[in-house]
Design goal:
It contains five helices and 22 strands. By secondary structure, it is α+β, with helices and mostly antiparallel strands. It folds into three domains: 147 residues, Immunoglobulins (Immunoglobulin-like); 108 residues, Immunoglobulins (Immunoglobulin-like); 54 residues, no CATH class. A five-stranded antiparallel β-sheet has the order 1-17-18-14-12, with no helix packed on it. The longest helix is centred in the C-terminal third of the chain and has 23 residues.
Length: 338
Amino acid sequence: MTVDGFTGDCKIFNLRRTMENTLYIYLVLVFTLTLFSVDGKNFCERFSHNGKDGVLNFTNPDMADIEFGTQQQFKEMHCCAKGYSHMMWYKNNQPYPWKLTDPDETYMEGDYGNQTLTFQHLLTRDSDYYTCVASNGTHTISHTKQLLVKPMQFTEKPIQTATPHCQDVKRLPGGNVTFYCEFYFGYGEGQDDMLFWYKINKTDGEVTYFWMEELNNNTYRTEFIYRDKNETKGTYLYISNITSVEYATYMVKAVNLHGDVEVPIKLTYGDPNGVTEWQYILGYPGVMIALGVIILLIPVIIVGYCKFKLDVKLIWKYKFARSKETGKSKLCDRNDSE
């Protein structure tokens, strides 16, 4: 499957602009999504660079736990992996071909190492749990997903699939993050379907909205994936070299004729491995050196004060005296002391 993405110019767009401008951008987005909608057989090829060579592992980090399909329509389920010598699919723990009346209607794609399970025409009875099991002769890995078959007359708003990277995350400055959200839009031509990102900033209690395509394209990049004849659409948001500006809430919105779904995702300051902000700050060598110097100076100051306390008091008394006239302290000079 061939996919592509797009980015926009570096300028700020506020949703409170006129409806004409908003409609114009909607149309551009729809056109762009259609432009990069390309169906292809070997979906897993785009993930072939992921994972470790020679090691049994899944290569698609965004495999959904729940997928949707349309009755009597084409459907593919993928289990992208590498380092395996054998892969088998199971339906509710029954190995392929699990009592199929017509194996030509449902089959594993042998040309692609059985990574793809294809349904030529989905039936209601195809709704079930499916598991792919990959093995290299020594180790075995598996992934289970639920398939739900919807009627052709789909009258619901888009349904979000369960993907692991469509949720809140923490990152440290300078890091990168990848979000991926996926939706089932239902059967149809899809001219009215829309899928896009925007960013929400909150400053001094005021909320401002920005289109991703209007932000710095050196920091933000989007990519769109269409599957199953455009019934399922997914979108990536890549954010690189994170600074304080990027800590915000990002919204992905999916729209069809029957409604819309908005999914908010927060990018916040923090270490994904659990390191706290103070631990992160203390990790800087300069900070540690400064703290070490302060710690070493504390006992020196205490000892010095205890040893020279009387001298310090006499010097203070000599340098500062109270005026007999005003009762206020004044700096003494040599004549005053005499």
